[in-house]
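Worked problem 6 (solution included).
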Amino acid sequence: MLKAQKISHAAFFLVILGIISIILGYLRELFLAYRFGVSGTTDSFLVAIVPISLLVYFVRSADIAFVARFSKGIVKDEKKTWLSGSRIVNIALFSTIILGLIVFLFTPLLAKTLAPGFSQEKLALVSTLIRLSLPALLTIPLFIFIKGILNSYKQFTLPEIAALLPNLGVIFGILVLSLWLGVKGAVIGLTLGYVLQFLIPGIKILPFLFKNYSFSASLRDPEVRKFFFYTFCMILIMAGLNIDLVADKIFGSFLPTGSIAALNYARRIVASVYFLIAYALSTTLLPTLSQYHVLNNQDKFKDLFQKGIRMMIFILLPTSFLIFILREPIINILFKHGAFDKQGLLMTSSVLAIYSGAILALAGITFLARIFYALDDIKIPALIGVLIMITNIIFDFIFIKYFSFRGLALATLVAANLNFLFSLIYLWYKFKILKMKEWTTFISKILIAFISMVLVALVVDLYFKNIFAYEFFKSVLQIIVIAGIAIIVFLAVAYGLKMEEILQFKYFINSFTKKIKGELKDGS
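Solution. The predicted structure is:
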């Protein structure tokens, strides 16, 4: 009972830290918009941190594979697991050092590759910013492995708190250092945050390293080969979701100044929404789903999986529409301060309108990637990821000609929805995981509730169209009234149709409330 309680507390703590991380990520973008607006300087900053963003994306994929294998291995044979784990870390560290040297030597070429449409002045700034961020490149993989090892020994607090430091570093750099150093201060703050992120839990892991670490490095180790194979597949599965980390910057460099910034600010809002839901579902459902799969209890696995996907749709379908219809007041409240002007608002809100149609798919892909790993079936999903990545780039080429920077968002929308659709089709074909009769009933009911909400929201929005004047408090009022009425209508119709999800949602809220009260009581 005590062990279960500790696990429950840890899971709750991780969810809270995940929410704090999302808030800090938003604050980072808020201060960036306030200080530099939708400008060429912001575009240069966002291009310069692409190498860091890509590396974070790669090592997050590695983290999933490393923790799963390391945590299982130390139970069976701790010494052998540490030997394989040490080899993985050593190979990754050596590769990162080589990568860092290449980036340092060929920084101008890398800057030109990432932003071929930039002027020489902007390219010079990008090169300087990339070199300032190089220490972060070296520490990111080390932190991920440290975090994975500590998590395997059920030590979650320190690494998860340390993971907040990069965003705090950027915020410090923007608010303080940039007063003297300009945008360079933001990158220095980011680099400082990543270095501290590594050093703080690094001290905690020293006793483990002195006892178990080996400086061996061998690709002949079967566990090492399996790790890198699974990591590679996970990278490919998520490739279609993250290709815009690079593609949007490359294409955006040829577009009007501020295009990259507008795409970034809108994507931050969307990412905060879909990541929070996908993270919550993964944290809640994945351990149980993995147990059902190991025990070969396919009926319970299918039932729980379907409930998770339907709950995701139940939450994100109305959320996506509300973000679409309220895009301008949302951007007005969140970003229209300081250097962020009306032109920036119009650019960003137009992108947000398109991205809102991808929220459900992006959350679904994030959730399904972990499901595929739990099922130990990643080859076909990896192939789907590669095909979607190529499709996204092709759509970028096509749409950018007709819709400028909005075309990049449209390409992401199409690619994300195709990725989610094909992944669901594969799950149904391979594992017969979707029950068509239940889904027909669910889709019919949720469409009725959704259409009812849309009609009411559009009518109420007509009134606010006449009074909206980019004023902060009017924007707040518009969001509260339209979102409030729309949500009430949606939930009321869903309740009238006796949707199973409305009861599950009510149960989830009650359970979550009780959990918060319990955590506060235990902590007092």
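Discussion: Residues 247-524 form one domain.
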